[in-house]
Design brief:
Helix content: under 10%
Order of helices and strands: EEEEEEEEEEE
Number of helices: 0
Number of strands: 11
Distance between the termini: 21 Å
Radius of gyration: 12 Å
Largest sheet: 4 strands, parallel
Strand order of the largest sheet: 1-4-7-10
Structural class: mainly beta
């Protein structure tokens, strides 16, 4: 998922749920709902902008190998449920 503009007024702008695996989410503009990752592996979220929201790590596995780096978020991370520190290279503004 690259170079897109997203807006959802009733949930997350980008919602990878229930084991979504092997995704690259780069250079996107999320205008309202932010980005949610849940129960998956090998996802890269890089160089995204989340306006009026943030990053939502839900039910993360410690060995997920997910990477969340070089993103701009407008609020603190919003984990829900069991969120393990499985994220690597978390550098964010």
């Amino acid at each position: 998922m690259r170079n897109n503009r997203w807006r959802c007024d009733h949930g997350w702008d980008i919602d990878l749920d229930d084991g979504s695996t092997n995704y690259e989410i780069t250079n996107n503009l999320c205008l309202n709902g932010g980005l949610k990752l849940r129960e998956g592996f090998y996802r890269l979220a890089e160089n995204n902008i989340m306006v009026n929201n943030s990053f939502h790590p839900h039910v993360w596995y410690g060995n997920s190998e997910d990477v969340f780096r070089r993103n701009i978020v407008f609020g603190p991370y919003r984990p829900s449920g069991w969120a393990s520190p499985g994220v690597r290279n978390a550098t964010t503004i």
